[in-house]
Amino acid sequence: GQNIDQPTEMTATEGAIVQINCTYQTSGFNGLFWYQQHAGEAPTFLSYNVLDGLEEKGRFSSFLSRSKGYSYLLLKELQMKDSASYLCAVRDSNYQLIWGAGTKLIIKP
Amino acid sequence: DGGITQSPKYLFRKEGQNVTLSCEQNLNHDAMYWYRQDPGQGLRLIYYSQIVNDFQKGDIAEGYSVSREKKESFPLTVTSAQKNPTAFYLCASSYRVAGGTDTQYFGPGTRLTVL
To answer: Chain B residue closest to A32 (CA)?
Structure first.
């Protein structure tokens, strides 16, 4: 079966750096997405990786290793507004998105 | 402004009633999707449509129905056959690209509570 694993919850301090990991086992691979979802709101697109390596976008970076079935989202200079759930999703060989359950990130002052 | 709208944001229905959730987009996207989100779980695909007048079942289509008569609109009906309909429903849309579909963008969601 297809599976995406992410930690359920993480806690970090304002101003610090946090890394959220995602491992996947899917039928084929056509890209990996990270979304941010604040409580009660819709997911918003953060990043997309299809080749191995690091993609940087401001305070957020996303890394992919296809051979290891692994990605991480790195958030720097954490702000209170970064408190949210972070969803990892993999597009399989049929171009369907397989979603992880999300990681709830709690930022403490 | 381009975007995806869902209405209403909150919806209450009595058990046994059918209810239709609205989803409209003006992004000129070809593909549209309906997901269900329950606490502690990932998004689960209910139905999707890549072109007008065509749609496919997702992983949890039982008890739901859709139509795609216009490119901009993809309404979802939650029927009385859906055993546990209380959930957060999200509509998304994307362009089609060679081989499949592009990044999905989401509407604000509808929280349905069945009493």
So the answer is: B103
